[in-house]
């Protein structure tokens, strides 16, 4: 990171320190800052002039069920916000409304205005667990895109060449493999770029998969004789398995709206290395600081993990929820106890012996009866601490604690 | 050419003959009719229902100086018009106004509205020497393109794939040679296609170099659930040399606004084969009919050529101009005489001997003094029938006939 000497030289020592501190925080965990030194220059100017930077991040209102992977970007926005900059949460409703207009693929179904509103609401509900709602500028790109005159569309399209578009990795792959790319798909990066012009963005944030589109924003601003934004990219977050990227479909995700105890338990399951990574990308506390404390023997990894989990749960809910999730976890795992609160199921032996797979499935401790049967066979269902592998029937009245997998409990009351 | 049997069967004998006659005339000289049989079907319907077909041809208001090459298409439109169909003369002012918005190439400078108006006027002045102004629908595509909402632009772009666009010959060449193609250039064929939707075109005419764009019109109509137009392409006309395509820059063109005597003389200079070709593409009289008459000894090629020249001059001017050009030509070439009317130049020997190159250049019988000097050296300047090669000075008072090349004459009056 280098800064134009002229700007830094015009700052006093306190201001320089402020710039350094901001940069350290704002670039933490980032993959790329383009151009090199661009952010330093912009932050120095901001400090010198007392002008907040305009930080843009765009979101498709199509996948309102967010997880920690999405939170990486939001956490970075939060850091900009804490540093006093203006965060703009941009909802890409214009393109969402269009989807894939040919109707030949299911990948981008068009959304109605009502669906977009509903999704935006769900988005907001999750996003503002991380960002400060009062300090966030929420915009929709239909505000300006609906009003663009026809000739402006062609001028926008003129900014990029076909060859350069085909350099984008997904386009080049599809082109090479003779899979169709429709011309309007070339317009989407241009639109995203024009959004930067409309918002007069100083910085645009995105995932590494967005680098190409973010750079188009710089081209578009240059074409409109506007100062070019700084591009800051964040990595894709690894899932709980530490291997694949976090995704609901891989079953390795922590949902922002998940139960506090589930969030806590899942976060406690990650490896120590991944914990440091999560600190870096998701916590207010730098990962290298935590790693150093562990290395020095000042912090036990298990405690570091609990603190991380509590911080994240606390952000998505509140500190009471974090405390409760923590003590719930400690009861079950640290002390080997069963949790205080469990669902209760009842079974009357008049209906025959208590059929464990059915009960487990009915209580949603397994996704289906067949999964419950499989869990039973695998010895993953314990009754009062003993694995029951077959046939899973209890023919004595009494109270039993049924444990499914590592964290799911059930009190079973069997009566005559 | 095949017709859906159902339509032809529903016609009576007189109607069928009408369809056959129309088809023969309308397809004369055409390179392609797409789809095969499409025009026959449409004409048959037109005859059956008494509905004129809507015939679209688009023109860029950028090159208002038309020549016989442009007249090929106009002649075809004229034939549609004579057959009772509705010809739509579409001025592509929308794209002309945009030009190349990057400003990085000089190939498509944007035109102002005033320039477009002036060009359109000059166009009309030439076009309506061939088409019937009262029966022509003159439109500008800005009528509908200015009003297209933003999302419609993206929907338009979705109709075509990038790979298909790159199949267009000029695009594929540039792409292969790593010469830039800007994304908005992909929009131009789409715009032309959308024009067909806006005009509800039954048939679109164009040169063979337009085939790709004309076919996009069919795609665009299909996307808009409109019946797909028939595409009819005409060849590029060979110039007077019979080799290269007609173009002002090759010096082998006959301008629509050229002097009648120049038009006549130039047309008389073509080979007999090219004359038949010009008959086919530019005359109301079929080329094969003329060829047959010559073959049978019923028509002398020189007379056939004079008739063609007179027909064309008569169309661009009137029959009086054609007669006058014809007799002027016959005076000079057939009888070896000098024309009745020639420009006159005067020279006083008081200024020194009459300096031929200067006089020839001043009278615009050569493009410059240096060209006049070259013509003199080549023996292409005759005075009273004798070539003067050097030094080109006349020092005796009197009247002289100066002949430059084959057809340019000048009366030179030299006084003491």
Report strand order across the widest sheet of chain A.
1-6-5-2-3-4
Strand content of chain A: 5-15%
Low-confidence stretches of chain A: none
Q: What is the strand tally of chain A?
A: 13
Give the structural class of chain A: alpha/beta
- Mean pLDDT rating of chain A: 89
**Computed CA radius of gyration of chain A, to the nearest angstrom:** 26 Å
Instruction: Tell me the span between the first and last alpha carbons of chain A.
Output: 74 Å
Largest chain-chain contact?
A-B, 40 and 40 residues
Oligomeric nature of the chains: homodimer
How many helices of chain A in DSSP terms? 19
Largest sheet of chain A: 6 strands, mixed
Tell me, briefly, the overall form of chain A: globular
Q: Tell me roughly what share of residues is in helical segments of chain A.
A: 40-55%
Q: Which structural traits does this protein have?
A:
homodimer, 416 residues, alpha/beta, 6-stranded mixed beta sheet, 5-stranded mixed beta sheet, 19 helices, 13 strands, 48% helix, globular
Tell me what you see in this structure.
The structure is a homodimer of 416-residue chains. The model of chain A has no long low-confidence stretch (mean pLDDT 89). Chain A is globular and about 80 Å long. In chain A, helix 11 (183-199) crosses helix 12. Chain A is of the alpha/beta class. The first copy, chain A, is built from 19 helices and 13 strands. At the A-B interface, helix 5, helix 8, helix 9 and helix 11 of A face helix 5, helix 8, helix 9 and helix 11 of B.
């Amino acid at each position: 990171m280098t800064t134009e000497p002229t700007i830094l030289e015009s700052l006093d020592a306190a201001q320089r320190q402020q710039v350094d501190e901001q940069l350290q925080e704002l670039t933490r965990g980032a993959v790329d800052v383009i151009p090199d030194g661009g952010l330093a220059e912009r932050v120095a100017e901001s400090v010198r002039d007392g002008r907040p930077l305009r930080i843009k991040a765009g979101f498709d209102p199509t996948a309102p069920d967010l997880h920690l992977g999405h939170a990486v970007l939001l956490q970075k926005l939060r850091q900009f916000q804490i540093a006093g900059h203006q965060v703009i949460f941009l909802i890409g409703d214009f393109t969402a409304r269009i989807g894939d207009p040919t109707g030949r693929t299911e990948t981008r179904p068009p959304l109605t205005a009502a669906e977009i509103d509903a999704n935006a609401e769900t988005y907001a509900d999750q996003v503002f667990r991380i960002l400060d709602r009062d300090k966030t500028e929420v915009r929709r790109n239909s505000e300006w895109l609906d009003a663009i005159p026809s000739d402006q569309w062609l001028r926008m399209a003129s900014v990029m060449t076909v060859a350069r578009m085909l350099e984008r990795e997904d386009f080049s792959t599809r082109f090479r493999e003779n899979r169709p790319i429709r011309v309007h798909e070339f317009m989407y990066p241009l639109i995203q770029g024009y959004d930067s012009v409309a918002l007069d963005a100083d910085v645009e944030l995105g995932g590494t998969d967005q680098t190409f589109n973010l750079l188009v924003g710089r081209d578009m601003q240059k074409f409109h004789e506007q100062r070019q934004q700084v591009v800051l990219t964040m990595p894709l977050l690894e899932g709980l398995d530490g291997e694949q990227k976090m995704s609901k479909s891989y079953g390795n995700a922590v949902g922002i709206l998940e139960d506090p105890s589930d969030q806590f338990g899942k976060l406690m399951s990650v490896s120590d290395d991944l914990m440091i990574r999560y600190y870096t990308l998701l916590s207010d506390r730098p990962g290298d600081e935590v790693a150093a404390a562990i290395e020095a023997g000042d912090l036990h990894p298990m405690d570091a993990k609990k603190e991380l989990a509590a911080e994240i749960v606390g952000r998505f809910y509140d500190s009471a929820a974090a405390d409760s999730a923590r003590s719930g976890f400690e009861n079950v795992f640290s002390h080997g106890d069963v949790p205080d609160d469990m669902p209760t199921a009842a079974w009357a032996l008049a209906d025959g012996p208590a059929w464990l797979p059915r009960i487990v499935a009915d209580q949603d401790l397994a996704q289906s009866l067949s999964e419950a049967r499989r869990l039973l066979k695998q010895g993953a269902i314990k009754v009062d601490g003993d694995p029951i592998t077959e046939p899973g029937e209890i023919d004595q009245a009494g109270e039993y604690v049924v444990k499914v997998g590592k964290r799911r409990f059930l009190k079973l009351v069997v009566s005559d």
